[in-house]
Amino acid sequence: MHELKLAVEKHSKLILDAERYIWAHPETGYKEYETSAYMEKIFTDLGYALEKPSDITGFVTTLDTGKEGPTVLILGELDSIICPEHPECNKETGAVHSCGHNAQCAALIGIAAALKEPGILDKFCGKIKLCAVPAEELLEIEYRANLREKGVIRYFGGKPEYLARGYFDDVDLAFMVHTSSKFSVRGGSVGCLAKKITYKGKASHAGGSPWNGINALYAASCGLNAVNAIRETFQEKDIIRVHPIITKGGAMVNAIPGEATLESYIRGESFEAMIRENKKVNRAFIGAALSLGANIDVTDFAGYAPLKNCEDLMLISKEAANTILPEEEFSYSTAIGSGSTDMGDLSSVMPVVHPYAAGAKGTSHGSEYYIVDPVKACVKSAQMQLAMLYILLKDNAKRAKEIVANYKAPYTIKEYLDFMESLNRSGDRIEYTEDEVKVSL
Known about the structure:
- By secondary structure, the chain is α/β, with parallel strands linked by helices.
- The chain has 2 domains: 2-189 and 306-410, Zn peptidases (Aminopeptidase, 3-Layer(aba) Sandwich), CATH 3.40.630.10; 192-304 and 423-439, Alpha-Beta Plaits, CATH 3.30.70.360.
- Helices cover 37% and strands 22% of the residues.
- It is built from 12 helices and 25 strands.
- The strands form 9 sheets. A 5-stranded mixed beta sheet has the order 1-5-2-6-20, with helices on both faces. Strands 10, 12, 13, 15 and 16 form a 5-stranded antiparallel beta sheet that branches.
- Strand 22 and strand 23 (370-371) form a beta hairpin.
- Helix 2 (12-24) packs antiparallel against helix 4 and helix 4 (101-115) crosses helix 11 (374-406).
- The mean pLDDT is 97.
């Protein structure tokens, strides 16, 4: 383990410089052009051959040890969030790495550099796949919906998109370490469905003839209130979260808004719960449109699957941290978090784990989030991940083979992708006739 630790430390400057560069160049999902190019250059300079999609960002690369064994995937996420209130956000886009993905990418660079050190690869067997993956943060739903409509992407998250493109077909198990305030692992997190809601009213002069209009913004406001009114029907065990925003509410102040748009998630601990509560939410939104005589297009998109961390991999993350970073406390919990990640999509088809590394401070996705200890967030994170890889692949990959043999995936890749496609639905939900109204939830 000591040799692995030193192999990462040797590249500390490269790692820490990468963290600062990516922090200073935040880009949202499927737009990470500078970040992806920066990562690509470092990997090619290290001697890696990259597989890159022609039409979206990110890449994968594979190291073959030349010895029989499983394929282990290690990921780092390229994208930022949007938080215009953050002091260091991009002033034009509001983008900022108030999520720690910049540190993830820096850690991935540290792993890649360490694996190229003389003698290090000899400690492993099988294949090691490294992936700089786009679009984990599920935002800008309308933008991604347009990419999907054009056929550029099928899925809003980078991991299911890469899964659908075949980049992970040969992968047996996967892990990714996120940045947080402490070294830890937990049982998993909720999944989500994504929604775009378009209220369709009728524009009219707001002063001269408001009675000739149908106010789409008012309908949207009623819809938000209706959703709030059903929150007490959500059961705690399902960990349901619904948090819509208005993205368009009118074009000018002296016209009745003819269209208003919202975006939202339905988060939940299981697909069953999300699908069930999504029908209630749709009913609330649609009822608001009915009350004003507007129409409504509710577009439901497959978001992310609930993340179910593999318990054996959770224990390996703890073992690795305790062994290579004995000075750091590691927290272990089986609790389910209420955030969402597309690592959940991978957990639907293979054993995965999603631990956390220390080094961040402040509220995630908030205006006071910073990487305050980049050595922990990047260098020590890379060391922990390399130790996880070693535990999995040493002794002819005994531990990795046991995990793969004992794991029962909920879906095959094809079954999972087909299921996700079945969640997509769009179109007007109200049909007005002279004597009746037909509603589709």
